[in-house]
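Lecture 7 notes: from sequence to structure.
We start with the chain below.
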Amino acid sequence: MAVVEPGRVDEFLAVCARWDVPAAVIGEVTDTGRLVMTWHGETVVDIPPGSAADGPVYHRPLARPAAQDTLAAGHPAALPRPADGAGLRADLLALIGSPGLADKSWVTDQYDRYVRGDTVLAMPEDGGLVRVDEATGLGIALATDGNGRYCRLDPYLGTQLVLSEAYRNVAATGARPLAVTNCLNFGSPEDPAVMWQFAEAVRGLADGCAVLGVPVTGGNVSFYNQTGTAAIHPTPVIGVLGVHDDVRRRLSIGFGTGDADLVLLGRTEAEFGGSAWAHVRHGHLGGRPPVPDQAAEQRLAGRLAAAAAAGLLSAAHDLSDGGLAVALAESCLRGGTGCRVRLPGDPFTWLFSESAARAIVAVRPGSQTAFDELRAAHGVPGEPIGRAGGDDLVVEGWFTIPLAELAAAHTAALPALFG
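Predicted structure tokens for the same chain:
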């Protein structure tokens, strides 16, 4: 249902007809404070609106499970880490070849992902982007994200991290994030521990949306996802929708332009709780998830949208699962162009940390000064780390991986599992 401004009903119906959306005028907004419905001139409903909208409120038993303390104590700092370039190289190849991070085209290419020829970004981009107006280039972007590992460690913080990632993915296309939807997936709510997870996730989503200034426009809940008494990890999937003023200035994740300067935006800390590295390399889940920072996400999103509109960037990719290492690999493979980077500190932390509110961007040649001024205006930290170009992913002083080897590892996992 839509509420249309007075005098613009015919214009709205014309837009619906253009997109083959059936629409009909069913009533009008009044100041009576009553919901009135008629049928063939006879009043069949006349009630306070709240009596139709307010549902039953359940007060199910909930309790924080004792296992949360054990999980928090299992910090990943105790896990063996690679000590040389060969070890870092092997870990990167293992991550991009793992089922959760591998190339998904074996699945997505089996479906039509193009909407009337107006889809301008699709998998494996950070967000989908559809043009809705040919004349202006106006478009809508959408991204969905979920991370059961983070939410198992802390459903409150984990849900905020999922929201942050979807928000960041929309921003990485150059769009402005505006609204949220969700699918909240949990085990049985009759289990007090599961009900605690659910309550914490909902609280985390509400608090995160309040800070980001984005409303939840709809969603659904899926309970009883378990086998016997073993519930799934709490897995809220969050969708964020944004508006792109001109899709011709969209940002892809691919390093398609050689000689672009690569800048890492955001702050990198040693945050590995629930990380893809700990999961893939050690089968480990423990510690605390990364600390979400919605204010930093807002600043980053504003900077990405402004830089895209000004034409300063040739690519942008958020950092999430697998950290900078996986983001660089995905951007190289998407654009068919390698890169050479210099890490300013501990290579393991810089490559595999999953700190939030970060992105890697490729700044167009000649645009670095304007981009730095924009970065300062939005209060977003930035670290130049290298340049795009060549046929290899090179981390200076540590390792080199040819793109052909990256591609082989990245594309083999799903066909091997399902083909």
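Points to note: The mean pLDDT is 95. The chain has 14 helices and 17 strands.
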